[in-house]
Design brief:
Shape: globular
Strand content: 15-25%
Radius of gyration: 31 Å
Order of helices and strands: HEEHEHEEH
Structural class: alpha+beta
C-alpha cells in the first residue's frame, strides 16, 4: 500500500513536470502576458577536435645530430634545423634526426624578435651537396624549445 501511494506521488510529479514542460515549450503565456520561454537557449558545445587547438597550427622542424638524450646545450650557440625532413636526413653528420614541433605563433614571435632568437640561412652540405633551408634557434629559445623536441 505504501509503495502504491509513493508510486502515485511520483507519477503525479512526473505528469506535472511534463505538463509544465509542454506548456513552456508551446509558448503559453503567464498571467502577465509574457512568454514563459527563456530569452536565449544555451547551445551545447561539441568538441570535434579531440582537444586540439587548430587555431594555432604547429610548425615542424628537423635537426640531425647528437643531442644528449634530447637536451639542448646553450654552449653550442644554436640548434640548426630545417623544415624539410629529407634534406635534413641527407646531411653528412652523425646522430639521429630529431623532430621539433612548435606553435606557429611562437615561431613568428621569435622570428620577429630577430637574430637573438632565430636566424635563417641557405645551407649546402659540402659532402652531399644537398641544399637545406636552415633555421637556427638561438639559446634564448632553448627553455621553451626543449619541451618540443622528440
Amino acid at each position: 500500500m505504501a509503495i502504491q501511494c509513493l508510486q502515485r506521488k511520483q507519477d503525479a510529479k512526473f505528469n506535472a513536470l511534463l505538463t509544465a514542460d509542454m506548456l513552456v515549450t508551446a509558448g503559453v503565456t503567464s498571467s502577465f502576458g509574457k512568454p514563459n520561454l527563456p530569452k536565449s537557449t544555451p547551445k551545447s558545445k561539441i568538441d570535434y577536435t579531440g582537444g586540439i587547438d587548430f587555431s594555432d597550427p604547429m610548425m615542424t622542424f628537423y635537426h640531425k645530430g647528437e643531442l644528449n638524450v634530447g637536451i639542448l646545450d646553450p654552449a653550442k650557440g644554436f640548434l640548426s634545423t630545417g623544415p624539410e625532413l629529407e634534406s635534413v636526413r641527407a646531411l653528412n653528420r652523425a646522430g639521429k634526426v630529431w623532430k621539433v614541433e612548435i606553435p606557429s605563433s611562437l615561431y613568428y614571435k621569435w622570428d620577429k624578435l630577430g637574430i637573438n632568437y632565430i636566424e635563417h640561412f641557405g645551407d649546402v652540405d659540402k659532402a652531399t651537396k644537398v641544399f637545406n633551408q636552415e633555421i637556427r634557434f638561438k639559446p634564448n629559445t632553448f627553455p621553451i624549445l626543449q619541451n618540443h623536441i622528440k
